[in-house]
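Page 47, continued from p. 46.
Same chain as before, 216 aa.
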Amino acid sequence: MSRLRVKGLSAGYGRARVLFDVSFEAGPGEVVALLGRNGAGKSTTFKAIMGLIRARSGEVTFDEEKIENRATHEIARLGLGYVPEDRRIFTDLTVAENLEVGRRPARGATMAWDEPRLYALFPALDRMRERRGGRMSGGEQQMLAIARTLAGNPGAILLDEPTEGLAPLVVEQIAAAIGEMKRAGVTVLLAEQSRRFTERVADRAYALEKGVIRGL
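Result:
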C-alpha cells in the first residue's frame, strides 16, 4: 500500500517557472485527480514527481521516502508507475512483447498484475497479442500503455490525460480499469481536463490553474 505526498513543489523549464508551491497527497487505494485545462501545469507536476524535470523547491515523498530530484529509473524501481500523455509504447514490438518489457516482480503481499489479469482488465489487448504497437489505434495504444505500466506492479501510478481524444467506448474501459486498480489497492494520481470523468472516477480532486492549486 503506497502513499504519495507533494508539499510546496515548485518547478519549471529554464527560467520559466510553471508550478508554484503545489501541495497534495494520495493515499493507498485512492484515486486523486489534478483537474485543469491545457497549460495548467498538470504534466509538469507529473514530470517533477518522476524526476524528469528538476524541482526548484518543495518535497515529494513516496512511501515515506524522499524522491524529489532523484533519477527517474530509481523512482520507478521504488514502485511509482507513470503513463505519460504521449503513451510511449514500443511501436515495433507486439502487445505481448510490450507487456514483457514492462514486467517487474510483485511487491510484498500484493497480487501480481500478470498477463491473465492484464488481459482481463483490457480484453481488447487479449485479441491482439501479436499486433505491433504501431498498427494499433490511439485508444488501443492507451490501453497498452496502462497495461504495460501495471505489468511493473507499481504501488502507485500516474496517469497523464488518459482519456484525451479517445472514443467513448475506450473511455469506459479506462474508467473500469481505474476502478479495478483502486480495488487492488493501487494509488492512482490522475491528470484530467474532463470534470465529468473526474467526478466519476476520483475520490478527491484538486483544481490546478496556472501552476497553482485552487481547490474545488
